[in-house]
Design goal:
This protein is of the alpha/beta class. It contains ten helices and seven strands. The longest helix is centred in the middle third of the chain and has 21 residues.
């Protein structure tokens, strides 16, 4: 059974991705930091539904602790699918943005990619099969007021994906980015009403987490073996 690691797996989008990968027959490691209890509950849900899952807690901004956690995880079998979904928002115009707000968002989204992927890379390459998927954002493609930090972090992921894809392509490992647009979640529902969503999204609705998870599931599959270094935006026509 192939193993998959989903960082930020307890979030609404992360949970949808975990459910999709579990349904595809993978053993899913649901990562969380502050939301570890939710990750444990999701792992239990997946097990109850006949899937295979476990929860993993670590702070991706603590590189040493994350490295230790990843190496310990690999001892039971290296995850051949790694989905870096963890991220955070601290939205504020740059003129009023503090250093902590700048660094905090980059450390989780962009630094977290390095923290989670780098320790697993050589073990994954040794298997000669792997799928690395980074969850970016349409903000990285279009920009958005009040999200200079978030846009920088998510655009950085795109650059990392394109470069890493070239490094590992000959070893059967693909690296791609998914860039969601407005995706339904409690946070989005609180920030954007349906009228505003209809104004900014040509399809006039928010996407569903399951729609993004379906794309991730495809990129994690054997069928997507010749797709690498790509950014696929799922945004209802925004970009």
């Amino acid at each position: 059974m192939k193993r998959a690691l989903v960082t930020g797996g307890a979030s609404p989008l992360g949970a949808a991705i975990c459910r999709r990968l579990a349904a595809e027959g993978l053993h899913v490691v649901v990562h969380a930091h502050a939301g570890l209890a939710r990750a444990e509950a999701l792992a239990a849900e997946l097990q109850a539904a006949g899937g295979s899952a476990e929860a993993l807690g670590c702070d991706l901004t603590d590189l040493a602790a994350t490295r230790a956690a990843m190496l310990h995880l690999a001892e039971a079998g290296v995850p051949q699918v790694v989905v870096h979904n963890a991220g955070t928002h601290q939205d504020v115009p740059m003129a009023g943005m503090s250093e902590d707000q700048w660094r905090g968002v980059l450390d989780v989204s962009l630094g977290g990619f390095y923290a989670a992927v780098q320790p697993l890379l050589l073990p994954m390459l040794a298997t000669r099969w792997g799928r690395i998927i980074a969850v970016s954002s349409v903000t990285a493609l279009l920009g958005n007021r009040g999200q200079v930090n978030y846009g920088a972090a998510k655009a950085g992921l795109i650059g990392a994906v394109k470069s890493l894809a070239r490094e590992v392509a000959s070893r059967g490992v693909t690296v791609n980015a998914v860039a969601p647009g407005v995706i339904a979640s409690p946070a989005v529902d609180a920030a954007l009403d349906p009228k505003r969503i209809a104004e900014i999204v040509p399809m006039k609705r928010a996407g569903r987490p399951e729609e993004v998870a379906a794309l991730v599931g495809f990129l994690a599959s054997a069928e997507a073996g010749y797709i690498t270094g790509q950014v696929i935006s799922i945004n209802g026509g925004m970009a």
